[in-house]
Amino acid sequence: MVNQMEEASLFSTGKFGRFGGIFVPETLVTCLNKLADEFNLVLHDSHFQAELAVALRDYVGRETPLYFAQRLTNHYKNCNGQGPEIYLKREDLNHGGAHKINNAIAQAMLAKRMGRKRVVAATGAGQHGVATAAACAKLDLDCTIVMGDVDMERQSSNVLMMKLFGAQITSVQGTFKDATSEAIRKWVEDLDISYYLAGTAVGPHPCPTIVRQFQSIIGKETRKQAMEKWGGKPDVVVACVGSGSNALGIFHEFIGDEDVRLIGVEAAGAGIDSGKHSATMAKGVIGVYHGAMSYLLQDDEGQIIGPHSIGVGLEYPGVSPELCFLKDIGRAEFYTVTDEEALDAYGLVCRVEGICPALEASHALAYLGKLCEGLPNGTKVVVNCSGGGNKDAKTVLNYQLEKQIASHTCTSH
Question: Residue 268 and residue 342: Cα distance in Å, rounded?
Answer without folding.
Answer: 10
